[in-house]
């Protein structure tokens, strides 16, 4: 049976992912939670491109997410 998108996101809880946004920015961090709108709460997040900023926690709006990809462990 094929997994649904929310099943895949649920499997990513407490794991590191890369998230690409519509504005071209990308972030990496650990998925702590999500909601039905695919808003993501990341901990230990870092901006990958550009300023290389680091965040203790970060909320990304689901409507602005292009893709979510697991980081290789």
Instruction: Provide mean pLDDT, rounded.
Output: 91
CATH topology heading: SH3 type barrels
- The ordered string of helix (H) and strand (E) elements is HEEEEE
Number of strands: 5
Description:
With 73 residues, this protein is mainly β. It has one domain: SH3 type barrels (Roll). Helix content is 10%, strand content 49%. The chain contains one helix and five strands. It has one helix spanning 5-11, and strands spanning 16-21, 26-34, 40-47, 54-60, 65-70. A five-stranded antiparallel beta sheet has the order 4-3-2-1-5, with no helix packed on it. A hairpin with a 6-residue loop joins β3 (40-47) and β4. The longest helix is centred in the first third of the chain and has 7 residues, at 5-11. The protein is globular and about 40 Å long. The protein starts with a helix and ends with a strand. The mean pLDDT is 91.
Q: Characteristics of this structure?
A:
73 residues; SH3 type barrels; five-stranded antiparallel beta sheet; 1 helix; 5 strands; mainly beta
Short overview:
The protein is mainly beta. It is built from one helix and five strands. It is globular and about 40 Å long.
Topology, element by element:
Elements: H1 5-11, E1 16-21, E2 26-34, E3 40-47, E4 54-60, E5 65-70
Antiparallel strand pairs: 1-2, 1-5, 2-3, 3-4
